[in-house]
Design goal:
The chain contains 13 helices and no strands. The protein is mainly alpha-helical.
């Protein structure tokens, strides 16, 4: 009996490793398809409501155009904000060079000879290269969105057909096991995006006001970056606080002021992300912070920036499916961040 269980566990582990390896190597196809499925799950209920009043084709066109407009606006904001930051960086490279020299001199005065090491592994040119790399990732993400949009069109065209085919299944239990989780996942995805968008807009506005009040240059760009990056839990807010702090260090040439800026930005992110957002999202979307962080890092490792964004929705879908079946319900309970029996 024990040997059978060990063999079963080994087979499951091997199958999981093979599936994850396939997901990694097939990311050019699977990543856009997964993103498209997520978009379809979010926007199709809206299209369904529109179809009751207008023809189906018109409802689909309006839904697609609205989705494309929203994604295009986010993409434009990313390119606009980072291009302004990159331009400021190129125009003020001398400031970073001076700070670099001061840091090396201070460390050497305290007995730490780091100049040879930093000369080979770090230089102001590295910062410029990092910014350019981010810009290249942004353009790659734009092409990813174009491919995913094509899958979204096909997905919206076939949602009704898929629903009809499931309804034709003779096995009532199988029918219910497919339709119920699908509806629940779609509803959770909608609420997740609504809450995430609201909190991102609030974060961007507060960061913008703080940057203006503190006299930090590129205040609008920092607000936009905080708004966009907040869609990626943990990693996005971290980047949105580190970058302005480094630029504040170069602008004010004061470590104390830079640390104050870093602390204030982190306080803003912590209050909105750890206090307001969980209370607005409710117990229905409550997830273990450990699993959220793991999902973001794991899927970003597999699929890059797109994986970092889609990691939490994948986690939500997996836990919802687990919660709908008794043998796996314990997984959903264990990995949730609150009382799943509490009404949302």
């Amino acid at each position: 009996m024990i040997q059978d269980r060990a063999a079963t566990a080994s087979l499951l582990l091997a199958a999981m490793v093979i599936l994850l390896a396939a997901a990694f190597f097939a990311r050019p196809i699977l990543a856009p398809v997964t993103f498209a499925v997520f978009i379809v799950a979010v926007v199709w209920p809206i299209q369904g409501v529109m179809q009751r009043r207008v023809p189906k084709l018109l409802a689909m066109v309006v839904t697609l155009l609205s989705t494309l407009a929203a994604i295009s606006i986010l993409g434009y904001l990313v390119v606009w904000a980072f291009s302004h930051v990159a331009q400021w960086l190129l125009n003020n490279t001398a400031r970073f060079q001076a700070l670099y020299g001061q840091a090396v001199a201070w460390l050497e005065a305290h007995g730490l000879a780091v100049q040879p090491l930093m000369a080979t592994s770090f230089s102001p040119a590295w910062i410029t290269g990092a910014v350019r790399e981010i810009g290249g990732q942004g353009y790659g993400l734009l092409s990813f969105v174009v491919i995913a949009f094509a899958f979204t069109v096909l997905g919206l065209l076939e949602v009704d057909l898929a629903h009809h085919n499931i309804q034709r299944l003779e096995n009532a239990r199988l029918r219910e096991s497919l339709l119920t989780p699908a509806k629940e996942i779609s509803a959770k995805f909608q609420k997740y995006m609504l809450v995430r968008s609201t909190m991102s807009a609030l974060t961007g506005a507060v960061v913008w006001v703080f940057a203006l009040t503190a006299g930090i240059e590129l205040a609008t760009a920092w607000g936009v970056i905080a708004f966009v990056l907040n869609y990626i839990p943990f990693i996005g807010p971290l980047v949105a606080t580190v970058f302005p702090s480094l630029f504040a260090l170069a602008q004010f040439e004061s470590w104390n002021l830079a640390l104050i800026v870093f602390g204030c930005l982190n306080a803003i992110q912590f209050f909105i992300g750890s206090y307001l957002e969980p209370r607005i999202a409710g117990a229905r979307l409550s997830l273990s912070p450990f699993m959220v962080l793991f999902a973001v890092f794991f899927w970003s490792f597999l699929w890059g920036i797109a994986g970092a964004f889609i990691g939490v929705p994948i986690l939500i879908a997996v836990l919802t499916i687990c919660g709908e079946h008794e043998p796996s319900k314990w997984i959903a309970i264990l990995l949730s961040g609150g009382d799943r029996n509490k009404p949302a």
